[in-house]
Amino acid sequence: MAKRIDVSGLNAYYGSFLAIEDISMTVEPRSVTAFIGPSGCGKSTFLRTLNRMHEVTSGGRVEGKVMLGDENLYGAGIDPVAVRREVGMVFQRPNPFPTMSVYDNVAAGLKLNGSYKKAQLDDIVEKSLRGANLWNEVKDRLNKPGSGLSGGQQQRLCIARAIAVEPNVLLMDEPCSALDPISTLAIEDLIGELKERFTIVIVTHNMQQAARVSDRTAFFNLAAVGQPGKLIEIDDTERIFSNPSVQATEDYISGRFG
Amino acid sequence: MDITTQNPTAPPAPQPGRTEDGRAARGTTRPGDRIFLGLSRGSGILVLVIMAAIAVFLTYRAVLAIGKDEANFFTTFEWNPSGVPPQFGIAVLAFGTVVSSIIAMAIAVPIAVGIALFLTHYAPRRLSGPIAYVIDLLAAVPSIVYGLWGALVLVPQLDGLYGWLDDYLGWTGVFAWNGGAPRSLFTVGILLALMILPIITNVSREVFRQVPQMHEEAALALGATRWEVIRMAVLPFARSGVISASMLGLGRALGETMAVAMVLSSSFDIQATLLDPGGGTFAQNIASKFNEASEMGRDALIASGLVLFVITLLVNGAARLIIARRKEYSGANA
Fold it and tell me: Domains of chain B (ranges plus CATH)?
């Protein structure tokens, strides 16, 4: 199911403001790629261009090419709704639907995609919750509201919801920044398991986290406030954290700025 | 998130009304606080006193009237409190009030929700501002103006609609029409729908605006279309708010007086179909009979007003039950 992402010459705007400029990179299937960089450098914006969520923001628009497998996500006649069914997303703050039960949250994406028999749904919901390491904690409360879970459980519920529709890619926008260390560890372990099946891209402010979970790391930076964010370099995580080829990367990682 | 913001090293705050060494310090509360406490407590008590006074007065007069009623107060199709013996009943009024309000709600709620969704989720901002403003204006139009417009403009236009309903839905019986003037409960319902549309729209719009962005993004990211986002994240979240908005509208519809009196050709019987002129509502009946009523007549009208009051309470109570039943899914704990 996992597919390669190939971005070339990508610019993203908010109205007339150029937020990220000329980004090109390749994300390998069945790997974890982490985006790091200071606030405002455009890493979240870039992440949101990968499932066409950027254009949901008013004034948001994108130039350039994002190839998913052999399909350009921004090609003519491509439906953003269809893109988002292939590229799942987990957000910074856990956002299960508060009006739905645990079960219905996981089944929400499936119900959009077509009709399933009850037994099929039951299977997929259980599989997804197991996949998100949440099944044992919620199997007796599937019909209770999803918003009654703890923050870490809610975030794993959101992951279960995202993987239930079997996307090709899973985007995570600072998925642990609202969680305590134990819940964070649970999510990080989960990311390690999920990369067997999905292409994963994760934005994080936590550099230890990037070092722990990712295979490749991309460093973004901006020259000054009001300037567009740029991709400084992308390389194997080990190399970025030990011997990066750009001085700015080393400065950022060693805490000399940003 | 349950991160407490308390600083554990901060010294415990002194208890209000006590000095730092813990002794009670009477008289040290600031005069401003005491005055404000007195004022707000007084206002709160005043409301209760007024409510109780109204209830006692209404109930007393109503009981007097019902005691003298020689007919069944709840089932009689007659209003003759000054007769010998006095005979009156609220069956026609209850029927007319409930039916016209149901018609009004059936028309107004879907349209109001549609307008509110359009304004919050579809219309470009430069269009939604002016439209919202116009709707606010509609809410401020006095009901006598709606009544005039209803009687002079709406009623003469309705023959076509009535004919169409008779042709296609006449077989149900409810929408059969014998060609009389369209001054029926159905027309009242249409007019009431117009009158309650603005309030339902405005409150629903506020409710839809408060749906957190993150829930809509969650639905979008799953590959939901705009309509699916609304169905999945917006409507369920706003459900209790829309019910409250509808109750506000229903309250106005149940109690509307002048506009109904001006449009309805009232009579003290229940028509076989919605389109035949006749019937009445509580408020319309009180307005049209109060001036010429004897003291007994007034007491009888007060008794009918008390029934309207009880109906309104019941409806609101039912709405609260509906909202409370799914409280844990309301999103309040998100």
Answer: 93-330 (1.10.3720.10)
